[in-house]
Structures are given as structure tokens and as C-alpha cells.
């Protein structure tokens, strides 16, 4: 993973962000870095620093983090799908709480809201309360997916982004955007700069599940898919620099 960039590559301070309220979707797998399981503290720390940069720009930030570094509910063999999904949802709270601690440690006020009630560690998700937290400049981490089985954290991110009135849903990945084919397997795969929602669905590009894409399409919420490995890309994205693939 490329965790650093030369200072000259970072965005110039003082510009106004293009997006004032964003929902950033991060996969659980990303948190484990090069380790086989769990959370790489260096990755967690860098993500916290990049999130703080957004807050300092005046951007309101919501986060949804998957649980692939711990457990994907749908991958539990031999278990009822609904039960497995609930286990996966609870696993997302481990990542949410770890991210909160990383952010609070560097002075970023953070709230964790859960779609499944667990009051000792997180607030219950209430839409208007989440919006008020964002308006006060607090980072809001949405845990436990939608609170329902059979829905992925991609769908949860699309749902929360629409509910809180985000300007854009940003999906952070390990590749530069959406390709015509898997760039690892096909060196000739083409990177798309822009796509329509219908093109993503019709071509079955699978950058997000169909429910998430359809939800954003129906509510005209753009999706930006970009590479999180390069230091500064999160800030570049909110400033409106051209990177990744924009679905709109």
C-alpha cells in the first residue's frame, strides 16, 4: 500500500470544498492492510488523519465501515443467512469503535450510531440526531449496517447518505476507480472516468451491489469510486479534483 505522498502532491490549502457533506464508505478489508486479519494500526491512524483534514476544511463527514477484516456474515458456512448477517453487522461495530478511538485521540469529535441497539457503546441511529451531529462538525460513524439481514454495508452507506442529505457517496477502494474488467486479471482493462447509474447496472460492473446503486440513482446521489491507497486522495475528492470514476 502506498501510504504516503510528497507534500507537493497534496491539495493546496485555502480552496473551498466542492462537497460540504460526504458519506465515506470504507471496506473492512482495507483496515487490515497487509495483515491476514484484524486491524493495522498504521492504516487506522492514517485514515483518522485524513478524516481530520476534511473536518478542518469544514466538511461534514459520515463514515460506514465494513467488517471484511473480521467477518462477512454472508460467508459463514452452514449458518442461516439471516443469523450470519446479524453477526456480520455486529462485527462492523468493532471497526466503528476502533475508528472512533483513533479519531478522538487526535482531537476529532466523533459519534458512533448503531442500527442495532447497544447503548453502552453507541447511540441508537436517529436520522435527525445524526444530522445535528454533522452540523456541529462531529464525525458520525454509522455501525451495524441497515439493522436488517440481506443488505450489505454498501447499501447501508447508500441509505445513510440519502437519509442525512449527503452531497456525494464516496466509495474508497484499492484500485483507481471502475474498470471494464478486473485490472489485476486483465491488463487491458479500461478505467472509466464517468458512468451513468444505468450503465453500472446494465453492465453488472459490481463496484457496489445493485440495491445501493439503484438507491442512489432513484435519489440522484452521485457515487465516486476512487483509490484510497494514495495519501491525500480523500481530500482531493472532496475538493472536486478529477480522480476515480464518478457515477451520476
Q: For the CA atoms, what is the radius of gyration?
A: 17 Å
Could you say which overall geometry the principal axes of the C-alpha atoms support?
globular
CATH third-tier fold name: Carbamate kinase
Give the uncertain stretches in residue-range form. Answer: 2-13
Strand content: 15-25%
In percent, how helical is the residue content?
A: 25-40%
Major sheet: 9 strands, mixed
Span from first to last CA? 29 Å
The number of helical elements comes to 8
CATH superfamily: Acetylglutamate kinase-like
What order do the SSEs take from the amino end to the carboxyl end, as H and E?
EHHEHEEHEHEEHHEHE
- Biggest β-sheet: strands ordered side by side in the sheet: 4-3-5-2-1-6-8-9-7
Domain tally: 1
What is the annotated CATH architecture?
A: 3-Layer(aba) Sandwich
CATH class: Alpha Beta
Give the number of DSSP strands.
Answer: 9
Short description:
This protein has eight helices and nine strands.
Amino acid at each position: 500500500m502506498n501510504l504516503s505522498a510528497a507534500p507537493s502532491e497534496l491539495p493546496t490549502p485555502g480552496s473551498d470544498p466542492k462537497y460540504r457533506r460526504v458519506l465515506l464508505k470504507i471496506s473492512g478489508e482495507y483496515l487490515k492492510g497487509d495483515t491476514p486479519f484484524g486491524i493495522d494500526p498504521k492504516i487506522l491512524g492514517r485514515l483518522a488523519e485524513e478524516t481530520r483534514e476534511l473536518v478542518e476544511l469544514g466538511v461534514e463527514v459520515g463514515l460506514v465501515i465494513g467488517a471484511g477484516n473480521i467477518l462477512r456474515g454472508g460467508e459463514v458456512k452452514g449458518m442461516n443467512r439471516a443469523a450470519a448477517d446479524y453477526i456480520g453487522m455486529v462485527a462492523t461495530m468493532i471497526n466503528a469503535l476502533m475508528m472512533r478511538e483513533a479519531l478522538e485521540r487526535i482531537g476529532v469529535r466523533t459519534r458512533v450510531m448503531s442500527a442495532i441497539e447497544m447503548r453502552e457503546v453507541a447511540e441508537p441511529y436517529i436520522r435527525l440526531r445524526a444530522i445535528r451531529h454533522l452540523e456541529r462538525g462531529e464525525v458520525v460513524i454509522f455501525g451495524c449496517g441497515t439493522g436488517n439481514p440481506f443488505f450489505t454495508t454498501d447499501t447501508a452507506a447508500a441509505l445513510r447518505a440519502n437519509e442525512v442529505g449527503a452531497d456525494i457517496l464516496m466509495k474508497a477502494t484499492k484500485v483507481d476507480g471502475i474498470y471494464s474488467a478486473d485490472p489485476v486479471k486483465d491488463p487491458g482493462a479500461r478505467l472509466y472516468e464517468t458512468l451513468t447509474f444505468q450503465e453500472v447496472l446494465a453492465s453488472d460492473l459490481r463496484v457496489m451491489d445493485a440495491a445501493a446503486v439503484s438507491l442512489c440513482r432513484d435519489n440522484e446521489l452521485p457515487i465516486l469510486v476512487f483509490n484510497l491507497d494514495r495519501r491525500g486522495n480523500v481530500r482531493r475528492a472532496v475538493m472536486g479534483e478529477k480522480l476515480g470514476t464518478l457515477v451520476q
